[in-house]
Specification:
3% strand; two-stranded antiparallel sheet; Four Helix Bundle (Hemerythrin (Met), subunit A); mainly alpha
Length: 127
């Protein structure tokens, strides 16, 4: 699938991997796997948003700017959940401990919902 000049297949594959991990995270290894899948999916999602916005003539640099503009452009409903995902992603990037891992895992369901809505919006805008 393409959106403009942007192939979103890597994002779709990352989200598929995230979803497959999401149902199984009882061991430390499984938790680490879903956190990594979350990080990767999140990074791809905001960068795809940024590229789409650039195609529309909007220059954004940071994830927060991107989420605000993406909401205004109808790519996402609300930037606030994405700001929370950014905070969780930042926890995993800077340090790793058990409580922070649980904090990140706590947003997996809402991330799943929001990223599916984002992908759906791409299909709507494409067609």
């Amino acid at each position: 699938m393409f959106v403009g000049e942007n192939n979103i297949e890597p994002l779709l594959r990352a989200v598929q991997r995230f979803e497959s991990f999401r149902g199984h995270f009882s061991t430390e290894q499984e938790k680490a796997g879903i956190i990594q899948a979350f990080e990767y999916s999140f990074e791809l999602a905001w960068k795809v948003m940024r590229r789409i916005l650039a195609e529309r003539g909007l220059t954004v640099n940071s994830p927060k700017e991107t989420f605000r503009a993406a909401a205004l452009e109808g790519l996402i409903d609300d930037p606030e959940p994405w700001f929370d995902f950014l905070r969780k992603r930042n926890l995993t990037v800077h340090t790793y401990n058990e409580s922070e891992a649980e904090n990140v895992l706590s947003v997996c369901s809402s991330f799943s919902e929001e990223i599916k809505k984002f992908i759906d919006s791409l299909e709507i805008h494409e067609g």
